[in-house]
Write a structure and sequence with these properties.
161 residues; alpha/beta; Rossmann fold; 5-stranded mixed β-sheet; globular
């Protein structure tokens, strides 16, 4: 059985910057057979947390110029090839992950999905996300749970004739 991690990144005190944390907390309350981590930054501690897992979902808020609540699903390489991602948290996250894959390729996840949720407000001190980001949080939770359920269900044995 493969090991799966959901990693929410953000600041729990800032309005929409807490989106990744909200996703991780919701999934943790579901008692699904996967691990959950919450990280308050995008430095090398991200690599420390994800190494050794087969599949990792990273969720973070970003400011890329989209409508608030827009969800982008990207990979590490996408971060360096999309000019919109270069102006978000994704640049530092991507750099961190790239170093991890370059230095520890055998320990980094074989499957990595990054969900970036467009923030409306990064700066207000509150533990409540904006309405559009709240909707996006639920969509990301549903996507991860659906993906996990598809990957975890036993595959039927081939029939021999």
């Amino acid at each position: 059985m493969s090991r799966t991690l959901v990693c929410g990144i953000g600041n729990p005190m800032l309005k929409d910057d807490r989106a990744g944390i909200e996703v991780a907390e919701q999934i943790e309350r579901m008692n699904i057979n996967l691990d959950v981590e919450i990280i308050y930054g995008v430095g090398f501690e991200v690599n420390d947390k994800i190494m050794g897992y087969d599949r990792v979902f990273i969720i973070d808020a970003a400011k890329m110029g989209h409508t608030a609540g827009t969800i982008l699903e990207v990979g590490v390489d996408d971060i360096f090839h999309d000019h919109l991602l270069a102006s978000s948290h994704a640049t530092t996250l991507g750099s961190t992950l790239k170093v991890g894959y370059d230095l520890f390729p055998d320990e980094m996840p074989g499957e990595l999905k990054i969900f970036l949720i467009e923030a409306e407000d990064y700066f207000e001190f509150t533990k409540t996300c904006s309405p559009a980001v709240t909707v996006a949080i639920q969509k990301v939770v549903d996507t991860i749970v659906s993906y996990f359920n598809q990957q975890s269900s036993p595959q039927p044995e081939p029939m021999l004739c």
